[in-house]
Structure formats: C-alpha cells, structure tokens
Amino acid sequence: MKKNSMFTGENGVNYLFPFILITSLFFLWGFAHSLLDVLNKHFQDSLSLTKAESGAVQAAAYGAYFIMAIPAGIIARKFGYKFGIIVGLSLFAAGAFWFVPAVGINTFWAFLIGLLVLFCGLACLETVANPYTIVLGSPEKAASRINLAQTFNAIGWILGPLVGSILIFNNESEKSILELFVEAVKKVFLGATEQVQNITTSASEAITDNSALVVPYVGLGTIVLLVLVLFIFVKLPEIKSETSSVDAVASLNNERISNRPLIQQRHFVMAVIAQFLYVAAQTGIGSFFINYTVEIEALQLNEMQAGLLLGLGGMALFAIGRLSGSMIMQKVKPEVLLGSFALINTLLMIIAMASHTRFGLIALIASYLFMSIMFPSIFALGLRHLGEKTKTASSILVFTVVGGAIAPTLMGLIGETNMSIGFIVPLVCFLYISFFGFFGSSVKQ
User: Fold this and answer.
1) What is the C-alpha end-to-end distance of the chain, expressed in Å?
2) 8 pairs with which residues across the strands?
3) In a 3-state reduction of DSSP, which class is residue 430?
4) Does residue 137 or residue 272 have the better pLDDT?
C-alpha cells in the first residue's frame, strides 16, 4: 500500500482493518437510532399508548447520552479508547438482549430500561469512534476518513426502519414487501387512487404483539457480540497524546487559537443551541413519520408501507445528501448551505402542517435530504477558531443530542388529535438553524 494512503500512518503502519472495525460501529449505531422510529408507532398499538407517552422511547434513548457522555470520556482517557469501545459494545449488546425478558414482563418501563442501557452503550461508542477515525491514518486525510465512516452510518439509518417495519409490523395483505412499497410510492408521488383490499386495518385489528421485537433485537445483539469479540482480540493503535485529535483538527482547519472562554464565543454558544434544536427536529420528524402517514385517509397506507417510505424514501435521501454535501460545499460556503437548507425545511414543515395529504407527506420525505448536512455542518461551524478548546467544545456539543429526548413528547402532546399540528416543533427548530447559518455562525473578532 502506498505511503500516502488514507489508512497509512506517518509511521508506515496500515490501519485499514482497524478502520473497518470502527466503521462497523457507525453502521450499528445508525441502525439502532433509526429503529426507534418504528418502535414509537409499535408501542402505541401494542401497549395502547398515546402519542405523547410513546415519546418516552426517544426520551430514554437520547437521555442516555446526557447520562453517559462524561463517563464515556473519562473511561476513554483513563483506560484507552479500545476499552471505551469494549464497554460501549457490552452495554449495546446487554440492552438489545434485555428485550427478551422485557417481552415477558410486557410493560412499557421494561422496554425503556433496555433502550436506556443500549443507548448508554451508543454514547460510549460515539464519544470514542469519531476522534478515533482521526488517528487511523495520515492527519491530512482525516476528513476523508470521517466522511467515509459517516456514509456507512447513513446506510444504517436506511436499513433500521426498513428491517424494523418488515419484522415488527404485520403484513395484513397478500402482497409482497416490494409490491407494497411500489404501491405506496404510486399513491404518494403519482396520486394513484385505486383501492386495495386488506391493506389497512383498524387499530384494534392491527394490534402487534411485543414478541415481534425479539427477532430484530436479538439479531442486533448477536451481531454486536461478534463485533465485540473482534475488538477484544484485534490490536488497535492507542492515542498517545491527549491533544492528538485537537492537533489533527487544527492542522486541517488551519485556524488561529482564540483565548476567550467558550461562553464568550458567540458562534459556539449559538451552535450549541442550533445542534440541540436540530437533533430535536430530526428525532421528532422520524418519531411521528409513520403516524403522519397512516393518518392520511385518502392514501390508505398501512404501518409497514409507512416504514418502507421512511427507510427507502426519507433515509435514502438523507444518505444521498450526506454523500453529496461535501462536494456541494466545495462550491458553496457551509454556513450559506446550512442556512438555505434550514429555510427550505422550514417551508416544508409549513406544507406538512397546512396540507395533511400526500403533498404534506412528500414534504416530510424531502426534508430528510435537506437535514442531511445539518449535524456535521453545525458541528464544524461551532468549532471554528477555538484552537485548544476544540476538544472541550466538541464534548459539550455531544450533550446536545439530549434534544432528541424532548421533541417527541412535545410533538405528541400538540399533535395528539391531529398529527400535522405537532410539526410546528421542527418548524421552529429549522427557523432558528437558518438564522444560525446566515447570521449566528460568523466568528466575532
């Protein structure tokens, strides 16, 4: 392999295999995150929960980041990044396998415990994996490695609702999965009006037993265990300097160091708010996408079809946006692109609220394309000109993921009788993000 390869370090060591293992983590946590969007509607049916109550699914999952972010950082610094990954994978697997006894207990709190443990593991993995990709090769190609890893994260986001819908929701028709998806696409995008027998059922007829959760979560737990074994026996390079990731980022960005405290860095403070609201918006839209879809009476789509539209429609656009975003930013400034995309999503949320029809659903699907670049863009804009404070600032930005614990419950309360009204929450979030992109992201000297 050539010296200047993306996975060859300055010492000539090839880090391709460790990078592949790290990349598998990006895929796994993307899959686990997007599977939550299926759980929301499933628990509404199987446990007779209100929309607001089902928002506790996201509250437990994203609240775990608030609980585990600091301990994960301490574990990584004291015992090494490999040990941090092992702890994260162990919690991940334990939370997934907990769904077996949770099905026996069959109460909402039992499933929430499993999600809390599982996502504490994901908090460990995300805290470790992002900076770890920086050192697995030459510093000047760190950005390329992170983008490559994020691509597999996007694939996980696509497969989560896809696999979850197929394994968890009942197929009440005689049609195949592919036929149901094609029919849903025709109805949504082409306005096809032909009615199909046995596609929809009433809520009482469509009750799904919670035993349907065993296969996807035990399967996920088994895969995580296999990855855990690999990490235990594979020798991984350790980060020898506490500032190595900071130095790599600084060399990439070539920014001057500012001595002001973070609280006085206006662009960073506004980025923290923007990131909190972005996670809230994305989580809220995903949590009630299926609700919004099945409540459009004219389409007569069932829950499985809604999940397929989310996975192969919205999440696929999300992945396309992630792949194309870095190329677009070579021509357009990140702050301008972020502000423009957030403004477009604000308009799409207005359409989703004003027209609870196939056009509103198309607006929701399209919003994933414009959400795709927001998290990494806000992250990068918030860390500009922070120099040696970059590592502390990035840790603070990790806490903003807790925004996903708040939005679903709030949206459920607002949209209990009419789901479209609940989308005022992501509307307000995108409006602020647009302001941040155009005005708040500039660094004040």
Assistant:
1) 45
2) 14
3) helix
4) 272
Buried b / exposed e along 164-195 (16+ C-beta atoms within 10 A): bbbbbbbbbbebeeeebbebbbebbeeeeeee
Amino acid at 196: V
Smallest CA-to-CA distance from 82 within 239, 226, 245 is with 239
Cα–Cα distance for residue pair 359/369, rounded to 1 Å: 16
Over the stretch 321-362, which tens digit does the pLDDT of each residue have? 888 887 788 788 889 999 999 999 999 999 999 999 999 999
| 7: nearest Cα among 142, 204, 199, 103 | 142
CA 306 vs CA 186, 295, 316, 382: distances in Å:
13, 10, 14, 35
Judge whether 305 and 361 are in contact, CB under 8 Å: no
CA–CA distance, 23 with 8 (Å, rounded to integer): 16
d(CA 319, CA 27): 12
Does pLDDT of 400 surpass 80?
yes
Average pLDDT over residues 227-254: 63
Side-chain half-sphere of 30: how many Cα atoms within 13 Å?
Answer: 23
H-only helix segments in 136-263? 142-168, 177-189, 214-233, 244-253
Q: Provide the total of helices (H) and of strands (E) in the chain, helices listed first.
A: 19, 0
Q: Which two tokens stand for residue 398?
A: 């990790």
Listed in sequence order, the residues at least 6 apart from 427 whose beta carbon sits closer than 8 Å to its beta carbon are 346, 349, 350, 353
Residues 96 and 224 sit within 8 Å (Cβ to Cβ)? yes
Hey, CA dihedral for 147, 149, 152, 156, is it positive or negative?
A: negative
Question: Rg for the chain (alpha carbons), in Å?
Answer: 22
Phi/psi region, residue 300 (left: phi>0; alpha: psi -120 to 50; beta: rest), is left
